């Protein structure tokens, strides 16, 4: 029964995700262009966007999550092999 419920949940979520993908990623109408005189002499992009801080934040979170998963796995392996030498 539990395998059936897992399969059912997977199928329902799969179909909901695929059905909503067309709605979520549909292209809308193009926005109007910027008014004249935008930027210095022509249209300028966001040159001073603070990307570095966001990348560092994501890397720190990823390393923390990887360490947590490693600790959890190591703890499970060491509990299963009590009294035995795991690493030779």
Q: What is this structure, in a nutshell?
A:
The protein is mostly helical and 88 residues long.
Topology order in helix (H) and strand (E) letters? HH
Total DSSP helices:
2
Give me the Rg, rounded. 25 Å
Task: Report the portion of residues in β strands.
Answer: under 5%
By DSSP, the count of extended strands is 0
Largest sheet: none
Helix % is 55-70%
- Straight-line N-to-C gap: 42 Å
Question: For this entry, what is the oligomeric state of its chains?
Answer: single chain
User: What structural category do the secondary elements indicate?
Assistant: mainly alpha
Global shape = flat
Mean pLDDT rating: 79
Helices, strands, pairings?
Elements: H1 2-24, H2 51-80
Describe this structure in words.
- It is built from two helices and no strands.
- The chain is mostly helical.
- It starts with a helix and ends in an 8-residue tail after the last helix.
- The longest helix has 30 residues, at 51-80.
- The radius of gyration is 25 Å and the shape is flat.
- It has helices spanning 2-24, 51-80.
- It has a domain at 51-81.
Annotation keywords:
flat; about 90 residues; mainly alpha; 2 helices
